[in-house]
Design a protein that fits this description.
single chain; about 220 residues; alpha/beta; TIM Barrel; 8-stranded parallel β-barrel; 9 helices; 8 strands
């Protein structure tokens, strides 16, 4: 049986997120043995303290959700997140720059974030927002970020009209080096869809429905 819990970043990124919500998320992550929690930057310190010693990672977002912050702002976000205890950083690329054909800017942007994060032994998941890109743009992102040594390429923020898709994950896997893993996120609410994304090449899943997905997997295994 697939250990679906070992793929899930238990996620809560709503603007109305409260301290109590974060505590509950962390408790569920411990109960269900999720890989990480992915939370807003302002709650990283609380989650890091709560999960200390649990083995569950704390992930947060940079440049979220639209990605068009200036690089200096993204670097400040990255530094603060690390100071607060984030072990993984899900950074949104400047999609506006991509659509303008400014690939050199995108390279400089992520090289700067990667250098800061990797110098401090943090993982970086690069969010390219596949639902807003053409297949050719997805492939170009794979070629650009794949050669940089990013840890993950991630499909989506969950805030665009279209989130993760099996086709996008498959296309990414076909065009990335084996060393770069894929995180699928956005609209993953069922075990069946989660398994399809894993079969297509995803190594990590970002979902706010992690508990439901795990419970569904258990029900299927005993039916």
């Amino acid at each position: 049986m697939l250990n679906i819990s070992s793929y899930i970043d238990h996620t809560l990124l709503k603007p109305t997120t409260t301290s109590a919500d974060i505590k509950k998320l962390c408790e569920e992550a411990i109960q269900y043995h999720f890989v990480a929690v992915c939370i807003p930057p302002c709650w990283v310190k609380q989650a890091s303290d709560f999960l200390s010693g649990s083995g569950i990672k704390v992930a947060t977002v940079v440049g979220f959700p639209l990605g068009y912050e200036v690089l200096k702002a993204k670097l400040i976000e990255t530094e603060q997140a690390m100071l607060d205890g984030a072990q993984e950083l899900d950074a949104v690329i400047n999609i506006s720059a991509l659509k303008s054909g400014s690939w050199s800017y995108l390279q400089k942007e992520m090289e700067s974030i990667l250098s800061l994060a990797h110098d401090n032994d943090r993982l970086v998941k690069v969010i390219i927002e596949t639902g807003l890109l053409t297949d050719d743009e997805i492939v170009q992102c794979c070629l650009l970020y794949g050669k940089m040594g990013v840890d993950f390429l991630k499909t989506s923020t969950g805030y665009a009209e279209k989130g993760a898709s099996v086709n996008a994950v498959r296309l990414m896997r076909e065009n990335l080096p084996d060393s770069v893993r894929i995180k699928a996120s956005g609209g993953i609410r069922t075990y069946d869809f989660a398994k399809q994304l894993i079969d297509a090449g995803a190594s990590r899943l970002g979902s706010s429905a992690g508990v439901h997905i795990v419970q569904s997997a258990i029900e299927q295994s005993v039916s």
